[in-house]
């Protein structure tokens, strides 16, 4: 090649390097701007962090770190807690998202598992917060990453006779050394061993590739920990201690790097296969995890704590009107309590120290109030935060029976599904546990007489235990039957020519008004229907018997 050709080649390489540098700088600036812009804001919705993936990781981690109280699936879905999780989920990695999800699904009674010192640190130190968020953002998120399953079972999938792979990987190097003495023999050994290794890998490729892909995120997480230990935080010493016996795993990060499918990836992969590096690295990681399992668990816990603390600090800043709860014996007391999922929630106070019946007309706010109390009991005991001006409670399990549906697969009718949902509460209470129970439209799936009779019996039974129960119902008869045993609250409406209006304010005593027929009028039902309905309702209220049509 002439000098001019070489100059063109060098110029082309320089352009490629310049493009790579500019692209990297642009990505860094874009990331920095995003992290600055999103701080103090409720999180943006992401396509990552699917509920199936988060639950999969939680089920594995819960076996490693069991808790004294668990939010079961019915309560989780009744309270729409996945949406609550998304309000909190200002995390940049799956490590943080999985830790936050696990924190909301399980907790130890009386011991909110959050580090207030760490939360305050990240709330006040923007430089450290940016460094930590940047490190986690570079790690990124990967659903179904299997890290928790590897931590749970560090020996599953281990390859037998690992010495064989080391020997095969060394043969090409031995051939090169042999070629210095016996060129033909050395070349034969080198080429033969390289061809054998590639063929052997191709035979084992499918199973090993799946394992390497699954392990990739775990190795990248440990590499990220290496960056995090350089940031001064209250967790720095704990992070260093947990990382120390695992640091060697980072040396194999090349084997587990993220791949784009480029020609460069294909070439480097085949070089790795020729020297059996994937087999050696895979077994090395499993062996290191097995020998240092507690350190690995500690590392994941500390890294999760970092992102959870940032998420909680952000939530407290972005969500107006939050407080740190206090824990004491008794019931639940709160001022200006709000439902966190409503943009313009009407605040209500809470003074709940005995079984409560909440009555009121349709859409008046009963269910929303019940859910706001239940959600805040969980937020208080999990992330040490409540969406209220003040909040105090005694520690206790939270169980709901609200958004009940029939189960066609199990052959359960609506009523069967409903009594099974309530039975969860009864069973837990029967064990002597402190339970907060929330029931919406109790036993509405059966006839009026048996519904009221059974509902009264259930509420009376619960009232004789240590449980604290809140029941939303349309059955005003329950207030009469249980008079003196429960406290009555209600929501009400006003009706005028413009329609039905609600103020969503909790009031003392049972409801004294109804709005179902007024809603029929507002929907322009025929006047003959609404007038006849009013006549029948009035007759029943006067005599407590139904007239014959």
Describe this structure in words.
It is a single chain. With 549 residues, the chain is an alpha/beta fold. The chain has helices at residues 3-38, 51-64, 73-78, 81-88, 94-105, 116-124, 126-139, 147-152, 162-179, 183-228, 236-243, 263-274, 277-291, 293-318, 366-382, 414-430, 448-463, 477-481, 516-522, 527-543, and strands at 69-70, 106-107, 326-327, 332-337, 348-352, 356-360, 390-393, 397-401, 435-440, 468-472, 487-491, 493-496, 499-502, 507-508. The strands form 4 sheets. It has a 6-stranded mixed sheet with strand order 8-9-10-6-11-14, sandwiched between helices. The chain has a 4-stranded mixed sheet with strand order 3-7-4-5, with helices on one face. Strand 8 (397-401), helix 16 (414-430) and strand 9 form a beta-alpha-beta unit. Helix 19 runs antiparallel to helix 20 (527-543). The longest helix has 46 residues, at 183-228.
